[in-house]
Each structure stands twice: as structure tokens, then as C-alpha cells.
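Q: Structure for this?
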Amino acid sequence: GEDVEQSLFLSVREGDSSVINCTYTDSSSTYLYWYKQEPGAGLQLLTYIFSNMDMKQDQRLTVLLNKKDKHLSLRIADTQTGDSAIYFCAEKTGANNLFFGTGTRLTVIP
Amino acid sequence: DTGVSQNPRHKITKRGQNVTFRCDPISEHNRLYWYRQTLGQGPEFLTYFQNEAQLEKSRLLSDRFSAERPKGSFSTLEIQRTEQGDSAMYLCASSFARGPTNYGYTFGSGTRLTVV
């Protein structure tokens, strides 16, 4: 079955890079996603990567996928205070739904 | 298009009462999903529709929960005889899927349910 794990907390200084990590267990994952959730709000899709890719870059965001180790990471360059939020990793397998991790709370220190 | 819209944003109800939430997906999206998120956890899948057909239900969806999407557009999620354990954020998402390809999920802002 699916299991997605993330560390619960990350603190970085404004202007530094943030790296949020995620591990998953289902090797049949087709797509892997990163979502951002601000307090009291829904989920905002940040980026996604297809399972046959190693890396995807989108402006300040870089996603790295190590399929052998089932490890996904999200790097945010030049982290800003507005990046403070909870970040969820999610995987889509053959089932028609997403399986989410518990989220990483990113705190950006001015 | 204003994205996925959910109403109400907040609902406080007494234990034992029935509640109904509504979700309006992005108009060209053929799939609609309901998720539940409790405090400190990631969202958990409840059910999804392809057009008006409900194709999958999680075991989290007890008999007290029912979801409909009568015309393949908006959807409602009803919880009967609410319990305190039903207190959560209920999230709706929609996507466009053609064959095996699903072009990404867009979430609404959610309905926060508090059962007192």
C-alpha cells in the first residue's frame, strides 16, 4: 500500500534555499506532486513530476526524483517570508486519487 | 473561471444534525474528488466522480456519508447524524482526465466543519 513520509518541520532564514524531502513506498507511482497550504486555506498545486523524470525546474522551484530510493525533494531558492506554509508531497499510483504525506511546516525567519 | 468553489467556508453544527456541503468544480473538468483533512494531517481521499458517476469510495466514507454529482457539474457531500469525529476540513478537487492521463488536480479552499 501507499505510505508517504515527510519531516514535520523546517526553518530557514530568508534568502536561503529550502529543501523539503519526501519518501514514498509505492513503486508504481505515476505522478508525484508538491502542494502548498497556507493557514485556513485549501491546497495550491506548486509543481508535479512524472515518474520517468529525474528533475524538473520551474522558476524558484526544483524537484528532484530518485526513483530507485523512492525519494522526492522540493528545493525553493531564495526563500521568502511568503513561502511560510505547509508543504505536502503526494503520489498518484494506478488508483484515481492522490495519497498525501503529513506535510512539512516551513517557517521562514526574516 | 474562478477555480474550484466550496460552500460554506465554515459550518458549526450540533452532534446528531445533518450537514451538506457543495462543491463547484472548474467547468471543463470531468473528474471531481472529495478529501477530508484533520488537524496536523494530510488530506485523505473519500470519493471521486467521473462526470456524474461515482466510481470509487474510500472505506473512510461510512454509511452516514453520501456524495452526489447529479448532472456531472457541481457535487454535494452530506453527512447524516454528525459525530464529533467528523470535525475536519472537507476539500473538493477537480481535474480533467482523458484515458489514463490525468492533467492535475485543482483544490478548493475547503469547508471547515466543527461538530459541537
